[in-house]
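2024-03-11 09:14:02 DEBUG pipeline.ingest accepted 1 chain
2024-03-11 09:14:02 DEBUG pipeline.ingest length=227
2024-03-11 09:14:03 DEBUG pipeline.predict start
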Amino acid sequence: MVFLGVFQKYLQPSIEILNLRIDEPITTVTDLLFAAICFYAFFQIRRMESGSRVKWYFKYYFLTLGLGALCGGIFGHAFLYRLSPGWKMVSWILTLFSVALITHALVELSRPLVKPWFSKWVSRINLLILAFALFYTLYTLAFSPVKYYSIFGLVIVVGSLSYYVFLRTRLRGITVLMAAVGIGFISALVFSFEWGLSPWFNHNDISHVILSFSVFGMYKGAALILS
């Protein structure tokens, strides 16, 4: 009961800067922080010498995730009052594609260790579920397909394939990647149950900060895998 009393749902007030209204300012700032880490990871991975498809998937995972966070902060929070609600979907759609990319990165990484049919079918199932999540998001304008596809892609596919690759290779980067996925799952719990500390640090802000640590861990894991 004490736990539930401390962590509550809070709505964040707006602020004005030079007569410009900004909704959910801390949420916007934490979204931009998250985006900055993603862009840093993208450019660092891009500089690496590896020319593998695994690198390509990781690189564009960070890019699309960063663009999704950037659009989420600007269009989905700060200035949504000036736009139609449909603008939120720019961030959601980019997030869907980013999850698909990290999933394919692990499929590609595990390809030498599994039967050829397995990689092919995991890829096909992932694309099918992505298409369904994309269609349902566009049809309902709801965030829930994004959340559930992210859980499927990151926890079920990335988590299980990472564990399998670790058992076969003992790659240090895989352990870092799995830890980062675990941190990201904590963020999902905070967001889903809307646990916040105050109106100025609500569930969105906490989940963005935790996600920032998670995505930095994903970058460090990917860098170790590709080095």
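2024-03-11 09:14:41 DEBUG pipeline.report The helical segments are 2-6, 25-47, 53-78, 88-110, 116-140, 144-169, 172-193, 203-226.
2024-03-11 09:14:41 DEBUG pipeline.predict end
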